[in-house]
Amino acid sequence: MFSTYQRAQGYLGHWTTVGLVLALTISIASIAQLYANHAFEIVTAQMAATASISLKRPISAMKKSHEHAKLRFDLDADITPLFNWNTKQVFVYAVASYPGKRDDIENNVVFWDKIVKSADEAVISLKNARGKYEFCDLHPSFENRSAQLSFGWSIQPYTGFLLWDNVATTGTVQLSS
Amino acid sequence: MIGDFMQNPRYNLQQIQTVCMAVASAYMFWKGLSVITNSPSPLVVVLSGSMEPAMHRGDVLLLWNRSKLKIGDIVVYQIKDKAIPIVHRVLRLHKSATKELVLTKGDNNPIDDLGLYARGQRYIERSHIDGAVCAILPFVGYVTILISDYPWMRTVLLPG
Inter-chain contact A152–B71, Cβ cutoff 8 Å? Predict the structure, then answer.
C-alpha cells in the first residue's frame, strides 16, 4: 500500500514538524528567561554628541550640494543582560532623530553601530568617539535643527524571534555649523 | 503507459490524488503564510554572507510586513530589474505620513547599499520592501544553496 515516496514524504513531514516545534520552544524559553531576568528594563544609556557640518558636492543621484553631518559622541551602555545561550549577537547602534519640514516627517539616522558577539564586550564606554557614518538630509540643509540621541539594540538569536528596543537618552545635538 | 494505468485505475488515481494533495497543501501553506504576514515571499533563504554573523548562508528568515519600519530592522528588498532580493539592515529612515524612505547596509559590508541600488536611486521605498525579518531558523535553507551551487544535486534531491 505504501510506496517509498509516501514513506519519505511522511518522514520529511514528521521531522519538519518536530524541527519547528523545537525551534519555537527554544525561542520561547530563551525570551522567557530574558524576561524573567528583567533584561529588557536594565539597559540604559547615556549619550552626548557634537556635530560638525560641512557642505559637500552632490554625490550620485543628488542634484544640489548637501550639508553633511559628522558626529563625535560619548556613549555609556551596558548590554550584558541581553546575552544568554540563544543570543548569537547583539547589534547596537547610535541614532540621531530630528524633525522634518512638516510636522509628520520624522528622520532617523544611524551614525555609529557595532556587532557585539559576547558578554565580554557588552560594556560600551566611548569618549569623544568618531561616528562611523556621516549623514545628510533629503533637503540640502539641516536648517539648524536639533537631533535627539538614542541607543538601539537588537538581538539576533541562533534560533527564533528577533528582539529589539530603542533606549531614549537625554542627549541632544545641534545640527548647525 | 495507458495500459499500465488501466490495470489498476482506482489505485493509480489515488496515487495521483495524493501527489496533488501534497502540492496543493504546500501551496496553501505558502499562500496562507503570505496572507498572514502580508509579504509576497514570507520565507527567504540567506544566500550571501553580507549579514554575517547575524545570519549565515542557508538560514531561513521569516518576514513580517504589517508593522511600520523602524531603524535597525533587517529588511528584504527588491531592486528593479534585479532578480535576487537583498537582506540588509536599515541605516537611515526618513518617514512622513505617506512615505517611508530607507537607506540600507549589510552589517558585514564596509559601506552602505547606495551602489547596489538602481541608477539614480538614492533610497528604497516602502513598496520595494517584502518585509522585515522577525525570526531566524538556522541551516534549513541549505538545501536550496546546495542545489544552486552544485547543479548535479538537483538530480539527487529532486528525482523525477
Answer: yes
